[in-house]
Amino acid sequence: MSALAFINLEDVPLQLRETSVQRLDDNASITLIYFDGCPLVGQCEAGVAQIEYPFPRAPDLRNALVEWLLHWSINFYVIAG
Question: How many CB atoms lie within 10 A of CB 12?
């Protein structure tokens, strides 16, 4: 089973948004986005203000992602598929 974590871009503090690194994927349909200190690279579709992260199975990586989100008070939800 795999899971995805989602955050709304508007929930990311302004200082993180301003220093983020973003680029379009090879098909120019998805924006890859990296925030300082976040252990994973997120992605969002063009015109969508929601960022998607793979929710890791490895406890250390999963905990690092959750701790980063909680540190910045970013609301998130996880959907298992």
Answer: 21
pLDDT of 68 higher than 80: yes
d(CA 40, CA 64): 9
| 59, containing H or E segment | helix 59-71
Domain ranges of the chain: 3-80
Q: In what order do the strands lie in the sheet with 21-24?
A: 21-24, 30-34, 42-45, 50-54, 3-8, 77-80
Residue 71 and residue 21: Cα distance in Å, rounded? Answer: 20
Q: How many CB atoms lie within 10 A of CB 44?
A: 18
Give the predicted TM-score (pTM) of the model. 0.88
Q: Considering just the CA atoms, what is the radius of gyration of the chain in Å? A: 12
**Mean pLDDT within 59-69:** 97
